[in-house]
Design goal:
mainly beta, globular, 113 residues, 0% helix, 4-stranded antiparallel beta sheet
């Protein structure tokens, strides 16, 4: 059974930082490009960043420079380090094994002004 479990969300003030984690099980984690997505209130789900099995990363323009995606294949975990957070970053953040239907349940990030 495939599971992607996000953690690390919470309430933070504008300008603060958070580190999200997504632990995978039931898949050969190192084979997959992994992605972080988010869905804000009343908005569509959007891509935040992806990272290939070899560690090459790609970011949405609005996150470039503030967010960093990384992975630890030995721990089957992908991370999202978020800094200089803004209220508009408030959303539920999801991880995904790219090219599959495997999504996590999401973790809420709320940024107060």
């Amino acid at each position: 059974q495939v599971q992607l479990v996000e953690s690390g969300g919470g309430l933070v003030q504008a300008g603060g930082s958070l580190r999200l984690s997504c632990a995978a099980s039931g898949i050969i984690f190192s084979y997959y490009t992994m992605g972080w997505y988010r869905q804000g209130p009343g908005k569509q789900r959007e891509l935040v960043a992806t990272i290939t099995s070899g560690g090459r990363s790609n970011y949405a323009d609005s996150m470039q420079g503030r967010f960093t995606i990384s992975r630890d294949n030995a721990k089957n975990t992908v991370y999202l380090q978020m800094s200089s957070l803004k209220p508009e970053d408030t959303a539920v953040y999801y991880c995904r094994a790219e090219g599959t239907y495997y999504w996590g349940q999401g973790t809420q990030v709320t940024v107060s002004s």
